[in-house]
Amino acid sequence: MSETDPHKAMPDFSVRGQHAVITGGSGGIGGAFARAFVAHGATVTITDLVEPSAPLPAGIDYLKLDVRDDAAVAAAAAAVPRCDVLIHCAGRLQRFEEHKVDTFKDVLDIHLVGALRLANAFRDKLKARPGCIINIGSMYSYFGAAMIPAYASAKTAIIGLTRSQALAYAEDGIRVNAIAPGWINTPISRRGREEAAFNAKVMARLPTGRWSEPEELAGTALFLASPASALINGVTIPVDGGYVAS
Ligand SMILES: NC(=O)c1ccc[n+]([C@@H]2O[C@H](COP(=O)([O-])OP(=O)(O)OC[C@H]3O[C@@H](n4cnc5c(N)ncnc54)[C@H](O)[C@@H]3O)[C@@H](O)[C@H]2O)c1
After folding, report:
1. pTM of whole model > 0.90?
2. Other Cβ atoms closer than 10 A to 111
3. Which pLDDT band holds residue 7 (cuts at 50, 70, 90)?
4. All domains in the chain, ordered by first residue
5. What pLDDT, in 10s, does the model give residues 39-56?
6. 3-state secondary structure of 154
7. The ligand 1 atom nearest the CA atom of 29
């Protein structure tokens, strides 16, 4: 090995100059990721069903996109000039409705099939750097949920999809990992926070004893997109204040 062997270089935590595409970017976690990537020298395209509620800072642009729509996802991939990081944050859950077949399919389509659809569409762009994919799991990647079976099924399957995509995409040098967020203060989790019994059950198991802010996940996304994590592939990382461990 020579002195200049890149595998022996000091770790590089930078995402400067990268372009990230973040679905669900008008939401809490996607929005926080977009701001963090821009703060660290990247540019970002956020996509969502709805426009962001606040004006976007320089370096972030918005593209309307329903992640259930094959043609629209393909068109979005063709429209962005580059994609070095693809993060699939779009999501919804339908409490009490997800035992119905149509609702079950719809929730799976957004979270799980959406992850596959997006990766397929953006693969050629990701190949150029080569870049990486970050899927989003959940605490429900690890246990069931009587009220939201589709959400829990999709999030459990994200672990398997992430492993499988990592193996399939390795030939292109594209890494695929996932983040499993804990209990985060965003619109999707509002009803859980507001229900006293549910909230008390979560807090009793949670070592940090508090709901977290979406910005607290961003360091892990930046790390997974940086050269410093070049050896990490196919894993789902809980970022949960110790919930899974307890
Ligand atoms: N907040 C939490 O506690 C928590 C915990 C674990 C995992 N997650 C996951 O994190 C991801 C981001 O969630 P969040 O907390 O930011 O929620 P959020 O509700 O703030 O954002 C979700 C965004 O997804 C968008 N969206 C929904 N359906 C879409 C579709 N068909 N096409 C395009 N966009 C669509 C919504 O418009 C919204 O802006 C989701 O996958 C969610 O399941 C959240």
Report:
1. yes
2. 27
3. confident
4. 13-238 (3.40.50.720)
5. 999 999 999 999 999 999
6. helix
7. 16
